[in-house]
Specification:
heterodimer, A: about 110 residues, mainly beta, six-stranded mixed β-sheet, about 0% helix, globular, B: about 110 residues, seven-stranded mixed β-sheet, four-stranded antiparallel β-sheet, about 55% strand
Chain lengths: ~110, ~110
Amino acid sequence: GQQLNQSPQSMFIQEGEDVSMNCTSSSIFNTWLWYKQDPGEGPVLLIALYKAGELTSNGRLTAQFGITRKDSFLNISASIPSDVGIYFCAGSNTGNQFYFGTGTSLTVIP
Amino acid sequence: ETGVTQTPRHLVMGMTNKKSLKCEQHLGHNAMYWYKQSAKKPLELMFVYNFKEQTENNSVPSRFSPECPNSSHLFLHLHTLQPEDSALYLCASSQDGVLAQYFGPGTRLTVL
């Protein structure tokens, strides 16, 4: 099936730094989603994007739906220790079937 | 609060056992999903239900049997599983099958 390339695979950053990660696909998507998953828990929806070029914020998080519709970006500003976790992107072009990235593992050093 | 609950949270079973996973969504959604999450792999979609009708079965072995009695409840019946079936099983729901999916906390399954 469709695979998304998510990068970087892992990040180690200092508390207070900004974080950027992205997701690319070989296919055009109509929807991009970003999730965060803590160990032993299910993914929690952070931001949903439904329109090419859309830029949406949720607190310190900002995500963008790429103009080509084949990529999406997530930025976290002024990171804090509770931002630690795995961040997943997901994309869909048909509904029902969402394809997921392999995740970006974020470690924040106090 | 997630709005999607799953029980049990942890399950250990032998290869000859029969068990069931339960999912309930409190969001008023009409589509529900089962996913399998294994280490170092992307989430794998297993089953999709829209308005209680199964619309997707992604080549899942018959030892996994889903059941959706209504749009709020979803079950995954397990029998004669293999050790490689050990994983985190996640349930999700969405509205109309096209909007964002909301996940439950998952059931950590270990098959001995």
